Amino acid sequence: MGNKYSSLQIGIHWLVFLLVIVAYCAMEFRGFFPRSDRPVINMIHVSCGIAILVLMVARLLIRLKYPAPAIVPKPKPMITGLAHLGHLVIYLLFIALPLIGLVMMYNRGNPWLAFGLVMPYAAEGNFELVDTLKSWHITLANLGYFVIALHAAAALMHHYFWKDNTLLRMMPRKR
Predict the structure, then answer these.
(1) How many domains would you assign to the chain?
(2) What's the rounded mean pLDDT across residues 36-51?
(3) Averaged over 52-70, what is the pLDDT?
(4) For 53, which of 81, 98, 120, 149 could close a Cys bridge (C-beta 3.0–4.6 Å)?
């Protein structure tokens, strides 16, 4: 595998990054759109969430099969431990967030769209469960801002302060 992740891993990483941006923007900027556009904005958000879920599970399975390329020079054990913890949090967050969202949408008990298709929904809404899930979804999404910022800051610290190859391992290959 060399000193970089595979092209597939790099592609998934950056595609998830873009999908997360679109999913967050859809929710943060929906107030700037007319109410009549809300179903489309919500569909974009949900579709991105489903794509993120699928890609994160795929990325996790690929990661379990193929070890990460070595960091050169090797960081201190504490830094390595914090990196593993950070990646665990990222995987858990971006798998849990879409799962919670999907269960929430299903339990609303009315039609909803993903990728332009009507998705299954419960015969009757469970609004108490929906409210609880929505609260968790919003809390975790807000935590996501912090986790993403920490992840980016750590990558920049590796590159500029510790001067190792951590960031370069995930950069697309030059043609």
Answers:
(1) 1
(2) 98
(3) 96
(4) 98
